[in-house]
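Task 17 of the worksheet. Students: predict the tertiary structure of the chain below and write it out as C-alpha cells. Keep your answer in the requested format; marks are given for formatting as well as content.
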Amino acid sequence: VGAPADSTISVSLKKYLDSLNYQYEVINGGVSSSDVFFCYKLMEHLIPKIKPELVILNINSSDATDINVRGGDERFVGKKFKYKIQRWWEFFYSFSYIFREISHNVFNAYPFKYNNEENIPVVVNQIVMKINDFSNYCDKNNIKFVLVNIPNSMEIQNNEFIFDYILNNPNLKKGIKYVYLKNGIID
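Model answer:
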C-alpha cells in the first residue's frame, strides 16, 4: 500500500528474477486491502485464465483484522459479496486516507480492531483453513504454492506477528513452503 508502481513486491520480484537470468513473467493478482478469503475467490477466477506455475500468497495482520470485521466465506453469495458494516463511518474510512488519519489521531477510532482478544484464535484458525484451501487448490491443479509473510508496520512496532500464530497452528497443512520476513531476516 502506497508503494510507487516501480517498487511493488511483484515488480521487485521480477527484477530479482531477471538479475538471476530467470525468464519468468510475474503477474500481480493481488488487490490492496483484500484478505485471504477475497484472494481465494480471485484466484479461482484467475487461475483458469492465466495458468500460472506458481502462486504466492502474501499475508499479514491486516488479513486478521479484515476477517474479524468482514467475516470469511459467508460474505460471498454467488458472484457477489456483502460486507457487514458495523459503524456508520466505515464507508468513508474505506475510501479516504484523510478520514482514516482523522479517525485514528483525533477520535482514536479504528474500525478493524478485534472486538475482544478471544477473537484472535478464531480468526487465525479461519486464516489457516483458507491457506490450506489455497494449498489444496494448487496441488489439485499442479501449481506450486508459496506462502509469504512481510509484516506490516504495526506488527513490527508491537513486535507481535500474526505469522507466528499461523505457523504454530496445529491445523496448518504440513509441507507448505513459506517465506517469513521478520525483523529483516528471511526464515
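Marker's comment: Strands lie at 54-59, 76-77, 80-81, 144-149, 177-182, 185-186. Residues 15 and 26 are 10 Å apart (CA to CA).
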